[in-house]
Amino acid sequence: MSSLVYCIHYKEGCKWTDELRKLQGHLNTCKYDAVPCTNQCAAMIPRVLMEDHLFYTCPKRRTRCEFCNKEFTGEMLEGHVGSCQYEPVFCENKCGFKIHRRFVTNHRMNECAKRLVACRYCQKEFVYDTLQNHTAKCPRYPLPCPNRCEQSKIPREDMESHLKEECPSVSLNCMFRDMGCKFKGPRFALEQHMEESTNSHLILTSDLVSRQQHQISTLQNALQNLTLNTSGVLIWKIADYAQKMAEAKSKEGYELCSAPFNTSQYGYKLMATLFLNGNGAGEGSHMSVYIRILPGEYDSLLTWPFSHTVSFTLYDQVVSQEKPCNIVESFVPDPSWKNFQRPSKEPDSLGFGFPRFVSHENLKKQSYIKDDTIFIKVQVDSSKIVTV
């Protein structure tokens, strides 16, 4: 019993060492030895930790809530923490506001900037701090009529239709405004104006149609000038030959007219005409071809009478290596003939050409007709001029 021993709590930090017979006496005072909690919570606590236990962790301790200052036992405080109505907590809507728990419900319902609220006009829900922006463009927000009519509150989305179709005070133009009617007044007056102004509106419409017809004619002439052939050479394609020939035989004086063409950009304006079943001496047996002089824009600058040589060529559409047998006829204008004088209007006469240009019998030879189509070239030779 006289041998030296260490305290059983030497690992916890006790440095006591003495005879074995004195160990029990030491343990009665050793601060590292566990003893029952003095609050009778049934926990065994080292003497050195007893003060901390009694103050902080003992379930039987008496303590106060740091928020509401009420006194609780330790185990009751654990249930109280997290539900204390005086504890400051952040708003669940993440608005950044921190308030006592007891005020959370009222804040979330009535004060929170992130709470959901219904628009009083369209009933859709919005976050409170965006409601003002929504109201500025809410389709159901009531607006006063800008014309101060009897209907004072009109939903924003209905305003356009109200002004166009309903508002009695809106100032409207007459629907014939673009035609020249200068009336402008309230809707009820417009209805009366429309009833009383039928004749004047009809006159305005007629005048507008006349102006538009003149504009269309001007544009057509301008377009024709842009697309006008000014080379002095016309290649004329006559398709559907069989159909047109049958029509020519059934209708007396059946005439085909080419598109107009010029001898140069500022030259004479000409047009070729064709009688498939013949004309005059060639009627019923030949194809007749003629040239007409048309009134042109630059006639006052040209030399009259017309004196250029004109030739007509019917193409042989042969595909072999053989030389094509084209039919060519030409004439030199007679200066004394009236049809070569400057035209004053669209000519009614035939012009000048060949009533027996090619016989129907010869047309069937060679390849003048191919794929139900013939080609005729009309060429004005400005180098061959008759001296007057």
From TrEMBL:
SUPFAM superfamilies according to UniProt: TRAF domain-like
Location within or outside the cell: Cytoplasm
InterPro entries associated with the record: MATH/TRAF_dom (IPR002083), TNF_rcpt-assoc_TRAF_met (IPR012227), TRAF-like (IPR008974), TRAF1-6_MATH_dom (IPR049342), Znf_RING/FYVE/PHD (IPR013083), Znf_TRAF (IPR001293)
Predominant localisation class: cytoplasm
Family annotation (Gene3D superfamilies): Apoptosis, Tumor Necrosis Factor Receptor Associated Protein 2, Chain A, Zinc/RING finger domain, C3HC4 (zinc finger)
Domain (MATH): residue spans on this chain: 231-380
Chain ranges of zinc fingers (TRAF-type): 26-78, 80-132, 134-191
Keywords: Cytoplasm, Metal-binding, Repeat, Zinc, Zinc-finger
Protein name: TNF receptor-associated factor 4-like isoform X1
Native organism: Limulus polyphemus (Atlantic horseshoe crab)
Taxonomic path: Eukaryota, Metazoa, Ecdysozoa, Arthropoda, Chelicerata
Protein's gene: LOC106459342
